[in-house]
Amino acid sequence: MRLEDFDNDDDKVIQDRLKQKTWNEIRTNDSWAIFKIMAEFVNGYETMGRIGPCVTIFGSARTKPQDPNYLLAEKIAFKISKAGYGVITGGGPGIMEAGNKGAHLGGGTSVGLNIELPFEQHFNPYIDRDKNLNFDYFFVRKVMFVKYSQGFVVMPGGFGTMDELFEAITLIQTKKVAKFPIILVGSSFWSGLIDWIKNVLVEREATVSPEDLNLFKIVDDADEVVDILDKFYKKYDLSPNF
Fold first, then answer.
1. Residue 10's pLDDT band (boundaries 50, 70, 90)?
2. What is the number of domains present in the chain?
3. Given Cys at both, which of 40, 43, 46, 216 links 140, Cβ 3.0 to 4.6 Å?
4. Domain that residue 77 falls in
5. How far is CA 190 from CA 46, 178, 208, 224, in A?
6. 159 in a domain, yes or no?
7. What angle do CA 161, 211, 190 make, to 5 degrees?
8. What's the whole-model pTM score?
9. How many other β-carbons are positioned within 10 Å of the β-carbon of residue 98?
């Protein structure tokens, strides 16, 4: 079928990406992509390296401003900024907006690492003007989160939130990055997942070690988040993770 024979945009995108290309076309496109990827890394490193110690807040882009999780994320970010840390988010709406808003109200550094998406993502107004970075590549953006975050605060979210959470746990577990605090906020949201990890992955299938459960903590209160961060960094230095 030809591209114009498809009725909806999703089918057209799939057909366009699956259409046959010559080896020369593939090689040329890949070569130019390398330069674009390098540019995103260089811009990210140069900008983030100047910012100082930050904590990343993850969570759903779909959370509304009146939602208790939005209000809690804003409160957490406010307290984090008052404790001397900057706040990094994915730069979009929902929990990300709440994180940047809390940092902004607290007078702290407010960073947004935006990604171009076909829906949901648009940068929020609470990011510091000189700290709003845009990425085309998820993997480059994820490197920035992990390298320059002194901790991950993970609010309720969807697939993207889970992706960031498990990547961070995996990198620490395999010692590819230095250990840093991973704090899950909302025991009612996370308890089902953690029970499944304990019962299935640890006990039944033995695909995860029991000590790996110590790589993260679950809390329900903003003060607990700051307390965990402060206790960790009284023992260890603040520095990039790799």
1. low
2. 1
3. 40
4. 38-235
5. 35, 24, 18, 16
6. yes
7. 30
8. 0.87
9. 29
